[in-house]
Amino acid sequence: MTLPTRPLGTSGLDITTVGFGAWAIGGGGWAFGWGPQDDTASLAAMRHAVERGVNWIDTAAVYGLGHSEELVGRLLRELQPGERPLVFTKCGLVWDDCNPMKEARRVLKPESLRHEAEASLRRLGVERIDWYQFHWPDETGTPIEDSWQAMVRLVEAGKVRAAGVSNFDVALLARCEAIRHVDSLQPPFSLIRREAAAREIPWCAEHGTGVICYSPMQSGLLTDGFAAERVAALPPDDWRRRSPQFQQPNLGRNLALRDALRPIAQRHGTTVSAVAVAWTLAWPGVTGAIVGARSPEQVDGWIGAAALALTPADREEIATAVSRTGAGAGPVRPLAPRPAQTEHA
After folding, report:
1. Dihedral sign, CA of 234, 239, 242, 248?
2. Domain holding 145: CATH number?
């Protein structure tokens, strides 16, 4: 199956508009885990996504404290070289092996980044990371210029192909850009979390920086089957239990917005999940969306977003629903015309 692709900024990489997000397959037992997860199901989900045309997987060292990267590495070994997807991963979160439930520290010290890169290369079983990203801004006092120089050296050494950041604001993006072009940004972006559309995504569009957004289905809230009762049934170590978006009054508003997507999904003969993801892909400056799955069936629930073209009437109906429900925060409509963006069928 062939999915549409877009260039990831000026990196030279063409990526499908949807990619597989490997956060949840890290499993439970750590601060931001999703509860128990079967490795066989995880591998089947990733393989199914690749078979359906997805050409990239996004993971991170911290997901499952290394376990997600190890599973991605297993998948790569099982596939023929020509079938292997691009692999994107992240660094800068250092965990405590003695206390896995303790939140990881945000560390962008150059020596730590070099150590993390080598560890990720080993877990993934690759010689070069296709796209390496700082996961969060540093909290140790390390100047971002020193951190970004360390990333540049990884690129120059051939260990990293494209370099990006995640969860950075415009000020940090500009400081990195002054040293070496930022190939891409990974911000949270969904119908509920729309803040990045105000500043970061437009900045990226102006500077030729690709954008791949994470949690476009808001960690399951914007899916067809999610219900308020499900929150109570989440495993004790599922991070969503602590998330304000999964608690009242936000939960009620978010599910009301999800329900407002049902008529649009029915008109297009698709799922609510696909509509939610397609909305992010229609936003000016967005290159692709990272979409998680814990089974092949979940992949089938959102894969249609790649080719779903929402009409102006659809987008206006969604904007009205956002305003009516009061869900989330951030712009509901683009503030400027969409910049020219190449897309390949």
Report:
1. negative
2. 3.20.20.100
Distance CA 83, CA 248 (A): 44
pTM, rounded to two decimals? 0.93
- What backbone torsions phi and psi does residue 87 show, to the nearest 5 degrees? -120, 120
- In order, the DSSP letters of 249-299 are THHHHHHHHHHHTHHHHHHHTS-HHHHHHHHHHTSTT--EEEEE-SSHHHH
| Residues with catalytic roles | 63
Contacts of 309 (CB under 8 A, 6+ apart): 278, 282
Minimal CA–CA distance to 304: which of 15, 24, 18, 45? 18
CA dist 338 and 321 (Å) reads 22
Q: pLDDT digit string (tens) for 292-343?
A: 999 999 999 999 999 999 999 999 999 999 999 999 999 998 764 444 445 5
The number of domains in the chain is 1
**Is 71:32 a contact under the CB 8 Å cutoff?**
no
Q: Is 120 helix (H, G, I), strand (E, B) or coil?
A: helix
Residue 124 is assigned to a structural domain of this protein: yes
